Amino acid sequence: MKIPTKLKEGCKIAVCTFSSPVPLSFEKRFNECIKTLKSKGLNLDIDENVLSDTAISKQCIANSLNKYLSDDKYDAVIPPWGGDFALEVLPLLNWDVIAKSKPKWIFGFSDISTLTTAITSRVGWYTIHSANLMQIAGNENCNYVKLLFDLLFNAAEGYSFEQKSSSFHEFDYPDYKSKPLSSYSLDTLSELIIINNHEQTPLKGSLIGGCIDTLQLTMGSEFLSFENMGGSKNIIAYLENAELSPTQYKRALLSLKIKGFFSNCRCILVGRNKFEYSNNSLGNEEIILKEVFADLKIPVFGNLDIGHVSPNFTLVNGAAAQVNFVKNKIILNQELI
Hints:
By secondary structure, this protein is of the alpha/beta class. It has ten helices and 16 strands. An eight-stranded mixed beta sheet has the order 6-16-15-10-11-12-13-9. It has a three-stranded parallel beta sheet with strand order 2-1-3, sandwiched between helices. It has a three-stranded mixed beta sheet with strand order 4-5-14, with helices on one face. The longest helix has 13 residues, at 58-70. The chain is globular and about 50 Å long.
């Protein structure tokens, strides 16, 4: 695995869309998040297509990504948030050139994970699943956001950090349009789902995962294969659902199961299910996870800080991870090796 250079004052950072642009009604929020990056001394190049009320063509998105990912003057390429169709951009990227370029930091969740998992799997760069850029303003004191920036500014071989699952989460998104400096409203008690955790021993493996909406489609393709990661023997997989209905969600999990995604897993970490929160249908998650995973005898921990229901763990794809279950909390350690 290749560790991107740690950030420092004066580093050049590209901000561009990977999937969906930011509508102009969110421009004030976007500007606040840009201020947060600039306050850390970073030198930003903001792509012309980031702010737009119209969709950006897949070729335009690919052109920007090819430009920034292959240009060694950049130390990070950061999207504002996810979207819907990063899948159609993957085949348009110049993978051979990117593979020969200097590794760059990428962070975020949702459709961003379509690209981050592909880059980690195919090119071997560490990438980050975390809060999106559009969430960082106003949340600088969130422990997970602090850890994100600590990682970005201190990354090196042997760097390690620890996180503990949160006691509370937010039920719905803040109103960034009318309140552009909104922070997380952690107003809902978090209750873990625990399946197959009989021995309660430390679980170790290489971390990889993202949004199941798209990972179910890329798994086994040239864009997501454990063979490209050296055929990793021990995997800690993490997943989260954005928009799949209970039936679609269960099918997606079963599809990954059939494709062997869980074959080498030491444990599986599952984020809170955004579809259930959006549709006031809480209660299906535990049933589905039990039906899919009971026979695998792999520890599964659900309702975690991963994905569309904030806050978000900072998770490094490719990192050596250790998961401990202590006093009804998940303790997650990660190390860059």
